[in-house]
């Protein structure tokens, strides 16, 4: 049997991507294609008093202008339907809830004409004072994100007695931490092409993390059967949670294409994407910790305030990870939410865990200083063997190993405890660390395998590759199971006509899909009465059949309900600070992560590196501000929304524990997409404290905060 | 956006003549700022006069021993020119601190000096803006103004000039050569960009139709001590929160000559003349650098979010002067 799983394989889609052969949503050329350009609100609260489209309609090449007065036909979704980012349907009425909200769509025969005409749509507003300032908002108890059965449980929870427990503690810390609004800013903008073949069937070329979900949502909103919608999404240029459901621009594009009876393309501009295709809410979190003198936690209180939009109730679930990380008899979690005049916040790489762990892991660092205990040791002493809300033991945890291995690889034992004690010439040097953790999710999925006479195996499933490496791990799983080289396996993804491969979200794709691929490969070999694919190919030629084919599905087992599944890790980093001129650089990074069995060491490490880079962006520079008077975002492109450039990023060393978690699935693998970002901003902030003696509790740590 | 004509004038004279007879015409060379601006309706020209093929691409030594730099020399070519690297290292460093390699390959000297502010309120037509449309107001003054001016602003405009190259040019006492229909004239660099005052819509003292043809650098005997220190929100590809260009001539213990210019703090590249004068004849030491920094920022005024720039500017001046006093280099 050839050993493929666990090796380092370059991504199968790499070549087509670097040569430009890979076709993204908006690149699909269809004869007769026309272009739509969005008209967006320039006020953040109020209503449309008048909208004058005459000049736009008279502009050369303009085919149609849609506003709330002639909304293309869109049906109300059924009750309880959650496949939408915005609850409000596009162009539903004359109300404006946030700046950047779509108020019109101009369709023309070229992009330039559509954009030009969109600029000529004259909207008069009745403006009301918008509220975009989190500090001035009114908060109330946050609802559960998806209901009790989901992994994101209700954010408010209490166990034990916080007041008694904390009263006689040897050490107590209390501090408030804040993070700013971050936008997803994927490399590929939000964009789609909708092509109605007839009144009952439409093909939508759109990047989506979940083709079957998009298919259902579009069918429901267009009032046609699910089979009438085909979603094609073979490549995605980054999503990070912002491409899981249709946004209003997508719904409007598909609905308008039906009205005009032509294929229609809509691309959301970078400027528009700062407002209307999702963001991570700002957060304000207060952490109170109490511990014995040996560092054992007696109580944790975690209060989180986040903001949402009038068009979506989305609490960033910050407190969810707190009971998972450290053992404590007394715990109080509180999650509150306020409505601002902003677009819908949504999932952004480790929603909840990421800002939640900035607060928790910063607070643990503060407690370690308070007690004069090494922060790695403090975490080891407080490890919990069970999930404190689910009351289930963790499967294949190895968290302590992550901490210890990371410390060793980083050289943590050489650290001088005292802040400001390490120097490199005139630079202050700080070392910081933080834990990393993210739940392991898994759903059910289906895959089909075909063995063809030309000696290739084809794997077909609707699942998506967001640029993460799904094509490659699917091929590797099939190649190893079938006894073929990876090059002989062809993988087809991202098409709703294929078997249901599940959703690329919540870091669940690999854990959900590869067991189904494994099962389908085993089944096709049974069908072929062969031990491996070469034997099957021989049988195929002998029998004269066109192909062997099998479809199999895989879902979480009953056995798996006896455990809590989570992934674990630890980040260690070094920063240098040129104190006089407030210049901060991250100079070294070591991560040790346990995601169970690593299928492809190359793409898995890339996922962690990318997540660490994104976390460094959150720690040092990412923030989207809104003008307090108009409620309009004052970030307008990728030059003004800062995320890391190459020069900001040091070498990032990634290590995996690699012990399979067979309780979780037959591949022993847990997801890798999100865990890498958790703890990153705290590790940086903790290192800044070690370097400077200054505890910066508000992200991002920009030069002004270091003065 | 109005439809516009695209024209390639066959000479500088032709270009200037066309631009003079049509006030809605715009020159275009590298287009690294202008094309972006066209897409968001900041400019709606009647015609684009593409001057990029005209012969203004030479860097020549002047009779005085300085350099005459053609307006169409690219940022990349200028930064890497051997005479610039040897004799004006601060100019080379300032250029390389700006934009990205790809943008620098396209951008030209003349265009760089004509680029306009990246104030987000100016940049989006959803906001009123005195610079874009006189007498509509300045929402930045009462809005999010972390990146805005601390020196020389007016109640009509608090925007800053984004150019790194200009900060070096003003420190080096450059002169601009411009051509109008009446012929050539020279403008001292320090007088080229304007403070906003009551006319923030005007960035420079170019007359309508005039085209920058060259920048002349005088010889600067102590240019080796040049430093360009740019402080920003990320390590690369970000405009300056504060930048400082310095050069010092020190003889024995005494400062004979000093140059201090600031970027990211005002509507124009800011020459700190009074601070320079203070240093002349003084010892090159920490305490004098501190006093010079205080003098340079004594008239600074903070808005709601940019107060940190005052302290950051002082520190940057101190640091840059200290490195210049050591003979220059990276700061």
TrEMBL record, chain A:
First and last residue of the signal peptide: none
Enzyme class: oxidoreductase
Coiled coil region boundaries: none
Molecular function, one GO term: iron ion binding
Keyword field: Molybdenum, Oxidoreductase
Family matches, as Pfam families: Ald_Xan_dh_C, MoCoBD_1, MoCoBD_2
InterPro entries assigned: Ald_Oxase/Xan_DH_a/b, Ald_Oxase/Xan_DH_a/b_sf, Ald_Oxase/xanthine_DH-like, AldOxase/xan_DH_MoCoBD1, AldOxase/xan_DH_MoCoBD2, AldOxase/xan_DH_Mopterin-bd_sf
The protein's name: Putative xanthine dehydrogenase YagR molybdenum-binding subunit
Gene expressing this chain: yagR
Automatic annotation (TrEMBL), chain B:
Single Gene Ontology MF annotation: oxidoreductase activity
SUPFAM superfamilies, per the entry: CO dehydrogenase flavoprotein C-terminal domain-like, FAD-binding/transporter-associated domain-like
Pfam families documented for this protein: CO_deh_flav_C, FAD_binding_5
Domain FAD-binding PCMH-type: 1-222
Keyword set, alphabetical order: Oxidoreductase
PANTHER family membership: OXIDOREDUCTASE, XANTHINE DEHYDROGENASE SUBUNIT C-RELATED
Name of the protein this chain belongs to: Putative oxidoreductase with FAD-binding domain
Organism of origin: Hyella patelloides LEGE 07179
Name of the gene encoding the protein in the UniProt record: yagS
